[in-house]
Structures are given as C-alpha cells and as structure tokens.
Amino acid sequence: MRRRTVTAGNLDEILQMTEPGPVAEQAAAPPAAGPPAGQGHGLRTEFEFELPRGYVDEAGTVHRYGAMRLATARDELRPQIDLRVKENPAYLSVVLLSQVITRIGDITDVHAGVVERMYATDVAFLQDFYRRVNSEGHTRAAVTCPHCEGGFEVDLSGGRLGES
C-alpha cells in the first residue's frame, strides 16, 4: 500500500479528486427503489437544536437555535487529512461539527472558527447531539423522574426543561 503525504498546498487538490461525479452521471443511474410518490416516508436528514448557552457572534448577538444534518462517511473521513487534526487530534470534533452544522441562528457559514468560539458547554452538547443523531437516528433520551421514579422520554433537540 502506498502512503501519501498531505500538505496544505495539495489538500484542495485531494478534496477535489474525491468530489462526487457530475450530475449527468447521477442522472444516468437507474432510479433507486423506494416508496411510491406521495407516501412521504422520507429519511429525516436535518435536526434542529437549541444550544444551552448560545453562540455569541462578533456583534454580540446570541444565537441559540440551529440545525445539524446527518453526517456522511466523507464528513468523518475528511478531518483525517486536515493538518490541524494531525497536529492536535482533539481538534477533530471542531472540524467535524463545522461540517455538519448547517446553521446557528442567522449564520449559515458555519466553519471551524465559529465552533472554536463556542462555549465549552455548547460544544459538549453538540458532540452528544451529533452522536445521538448519527448513531441512534433520533434526539430522544430515556430519563427517570428522581421523585416518582417514573420513566419517560425527552426530546433533546430544543425547548427548556419543564416546557412541553
């Protein structure tokens, strides 16, 4: 097996080589089998969330609501060739989250710098949210009431504790 060294100069070249083919190639492929049109059994690929503290932008505006899409294999592989991750493996989650978060408040250009400036509690929340969405396929968590010991589910995607 041949090993390839990645530098910042050829990172864009490698990413371009791994881009999916043109739309024309995809159009030539046979249609995928699925439910008949109109049944609406589509896969949910984007999940909304509410940050515990909120992201504060340069203007001082607090953004609490956002959305995260399901990760692809490419999303999980791309950070492996990122030089920042090679230098500091802890940076992996910053790069990964910046790829799958589609928006935070009015901000649609979510990049590593945005994730870096988030509070640690919000990053921890997003890491858990990512794991739940991509491993379990939903944002619900089973909890037990400490008073009556009754079990129920809560949706972690938004809303404050105690709200319905």
Report what the structure shows.
With 164 residues, this protein is α+β, with helices and mostly antiparallel strands. The model is unreliable at 23-32, 34-39 and 159-164 (pLDDT under 50). The chain has helices spanning 8-17, 23-28, 73-77, 83-87, 92-100, 112-116, 120-136; strands spanning 46-56, 62-69, 101-104, 140-144, 151-155. The strands form 2 sheets. A 3-stranded antiparallel sheet has the order 1-2-3. It has a two-stranded antiparallel ribbon with strand order 4-5. It is built from 7 helices and 5 strands, in the order ααββαααβααββ. A hairpin with a 5-residue loop joins β1 and β2.
Keywords:
alpha+beta, disordered C terminus, 35% helix, two-stranded antiparallel ribbon, 164 residues, globular
